[in-house]
Q: What sequence folds into this?
């Protein structure tokens, strides 16, 4: 009998990621990011994306900016964006291996929620601080509790793509503020893989506090995909962040 395997997150999921995200309009997402940063950037900004996944967002942002470096911890996610003409670096966003600085650093689609402790978030914010030019912009979105509560109303979905049967179960632990997505993939050869994705759903205020500790501050915080002010009742919020003036010693 074939054994069920517990797998590292985003090791097998990239096989179906594009399919399960097929309803996400990355072009509109890229246009939104462009709209919130364009006024503050030069014509040829140096751009870095964190947790870029299969590079779908960068693909559309290339229409505005021809040179983008993308990074992600999962080599399989990056490989699934193989034909997208961006430079790809496989690395952890908490330990960024770059020597040059950037005018824009961005991170999309709840990826920061994968950092499940305050320390991890601060480590990542500090890396961003070091890599951002003095007038650079850092923008990211995060998922808030309302989003988790909505998703757990219909906690299961399943389907089949390219011979792979998959099931996704969504759970939210309100006490620990942990949102789990459990993915089970049954391959055409019968092998079964399970990936348990844990995301921390921090309170709204936490981000402001942690940005401050890393020498950064929020210029704006929008209800995502709008230009309205974000608050704790939003599903997703979009931060636009800059470095505080003066050198910060950690
Ligand atoms: C929900 S996906 C989003 C991918 C992409 N940004 C998008 O919009 O489709 C989350 C991504 O975060 C990446 N990720 C999770 N933890 C990470 C870390 N510590 N460093 C870098 N990437 C990470 C995963 O590999 C995955 O590609």
A:
């Amino acid at each position: 009998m074939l054994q069920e395997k517990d797998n590292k997150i985003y090791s097998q999921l990239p096989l179906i990621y594009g399919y399960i995200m097929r309803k996400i309009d990355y072009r509109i997402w890229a246009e939104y990011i462009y709209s919130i940063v364009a006024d503050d950037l030069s014509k040829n900004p140096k751009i870095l994306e964190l947790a870029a996944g299969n590079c779908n967002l960068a693909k559309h942002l290339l229409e505005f900016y021809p040179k983008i470096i993308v990074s992600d911890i999962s080599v399989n996610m990056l490989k699934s964006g193989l034909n997208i003409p961006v430079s790809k670096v496989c690395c952890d966003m908490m330990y960024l291996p770059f020597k040059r600085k950037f005018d824009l650093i961005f991170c999309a689609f709840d990826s920061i929620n994968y950092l499940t402790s305050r320390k991890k978030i601060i480590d990542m914010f500090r890396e961003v601080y070091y890599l951002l030019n003095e007038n650079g912009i850092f923008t990211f979105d995060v998922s808030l509790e309302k989003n988790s509560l909505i998703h757990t109303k219909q906690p299961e979905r399943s389907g089949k793509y390219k011979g792979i049967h998959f099931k996704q179960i969504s759970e939210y632990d309100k006490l620990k503020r942990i949102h789990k997505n459990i993915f089970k993939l049954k391959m055409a050869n019968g092998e079964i893989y399970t990936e348990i994705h844990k995301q921390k759903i921090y309170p709204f205020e936490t981000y402001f506090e942690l940005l401050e500790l890393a020498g950064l501050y929020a210029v704006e915080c929008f209800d995502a995909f709008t230009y309205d002010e974000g608050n704790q009742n939003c599903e997703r919020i979009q931060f636009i962040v800059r470095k505080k003036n003066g050198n910060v010693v950690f």
